[in-house]
Amino acid sequence: MLDEEPFCRICVEAGRSTLSVVVDHIKRLADGGSDERPNKQALCKPCHDAKTASELELDRRARRDA
């Protein structure tokens, strides 16, 4: 996967060229996402960490508001 997508998808969309190091599920498995290739993207560690933190914050808010 990283060979197919050597640059972080989020960085590329922002006009940067950062090497990807993490395979990320676009829609988390816990949220019903698949483990198939169309649901995966290559990210750099900072983008992956930021995406994960954002997802965890959404989870926290959903639990609080439930």
TrEMBL record:
Write down a Pfam family by its short name: HNH
**Entry keyword annotation includes Nuclease:** yes
Query: What is a single molecular function from GO for this protein?
Result: endonuclease activity
- Respond yes or no to whether keyword Hydrolase is given for this record: yes
- List the InterPro entries: HNH, HNH_nuc
Which keywords belong to this entry? Endonuclease, Hydrolase, Nuclease
Q: Which CDD domains match?
A: HNHc (cd00085)
Source taxon at top rank: Bacteria
Residue stretches making up the HNH domain: 8-53
**Protein name, UniProt field:** 5-methylcytosine-specific restriction endonuclease McrA
> Which species is listed as the source?
Sphingomonas abaci
